[in-house]
Amino acid sequence: MTEIARYTADSPVEIIGNALEQHGAVIVEGLIDPPTLAQLDREIGPLISRSDPAQTHLNEGVAAFFGKHVRHLTGLAGKSNAFAEKVMCHPVYLALCDRFLLPNCADYQLNLGHMMDRGPGAHAQLMHRDDDVWIHFRHPRPLVQLASVVALVDFTRENGATLVVPGSHRWSRERQAVESEIAFAEMRAGSAVIYQGATLHAGGANATSDQWRRGFHMSYTLGWLRTEENNVLAVPPARARRLSPRAQRLLGYGVHDAIKDNGGYLGMVEMRDPLELLSEGRL
């Protein structure tokens, strides 16, 4: 087994970013502080506990990918202030997005915030690359996504810690990982594994524990790409109006203004920036 490079939340972001560029994945220990973890548990815990693992999915392929032992809670920014303001807008995430995503856009946005509570009996996911949701990009494609899995309980090999293949972001699309190239993202609650969209990874099997492995996937993408989750519907204007302007922009309420780059002005409403209409109460 290989290992994932580890840093602490107070490590220089440049060093974390250098490792992320080289290895395609890093673990940042203690990224989410205990008060924020407690707030997340208060806001999200009761909702995820009521989720039905046998819920209807988008299609049969998605259902098979997740299996029948995983509880889901989507649209986290619309359900938790702690997620929207303290996690989604965390300065470490934003600094890494500035470095990796801004070269290909005028601004980036949240792709999705999705909690997965992996229960006993959950099988391991297939190894995959998150950026394959935008499969119509020809290869080699630019870096279009930065993703993360945040642990809300301790992640262990037994309860389904995320599997990651360091270095696979540089591989050919045909290459498959062998066991010795796969690392377990074992980490304490509040820690996060952060990885590039082209890095191979998978949710681990919760085959031998009696615990629910609670954590969430959060990812960012280029501001001009269609996101996996429709965040403006998941966080409607009445809810978004109470969030900070930075959170509103990450959710897609701001325009993608590429005029200075000789590009377009995307996402306007009535020829204006929706953020202005939101603040005026017109949205």
TrEMBL record:
Q: Per its UniProt record, what InterPro entries does this chain match?
A: Phytyl_CoA_dOase-like
A GO molecular function held by the record: iron ion binding
Coiled coil regions in record: none
Query: Which superkingdom is the protein from?
Result: Bacteria
Q: Which cofactor does it need?
A: Fe(2+)
Q: Which SUPFAM superfamilies match?
A: Clavaminate synthase-like (SSF51197)
PANTHER family registered for this protein in UniProt: ECTOINE DIOXYGENASE, PHYTANOYL-COA DIOXYGENASE DOMAIN CONTAINING 1
User: What name goes with this protein?
Assistant: Mitomycin antibiotic biosynthesis protein
Q: Which organism is it from?
A: Cupriavidus necator (Alcaligenes eutrophus)
